[in-house]
Amino acid sequence: MTGTTFIITFTTRPEAASDFRAMLDGVKRELPTVAGCRGVSIFRASDDPAVFTLVEQWDSEQAHKKHIETLSASGGWDAIAACLLEPPSGRYASQL
């Protein structure tokens, strides 16, 4: 079954890392219930506790983009952005 993977890395402000980590607990529970999401794995950098990477599995890029539109419209993205030191780095990828 085909699909797409979206990999995104967030660098939080050091003082916001624990709040962001708490938000990710919700992401781990809730994101897999979003239409088109097949699952998410969340990682924290071993050498920097303010850096988090999500590896998300989606049915399609369109399903992911629809989720981002919904997240932005609901104000959910604003809560994430408030914790960040810099804009996140994300891209679609395919497994080799």
Automatic annotation (TrEMBL):
Keywords: Monooxygenase, Oxidoreductase. This is Antibiotic biosynthesis monooxygenase. The keyword Transferase does not apply. Pfam families: ABM (PF03992). The keyword Oxidoreductase applies. Gene3D superfamilies: 3.30.70.100. It comes from the Bacteria. GO terms for molecular function: monooxygenase activity. Residues 4-96 form the ABM domain.
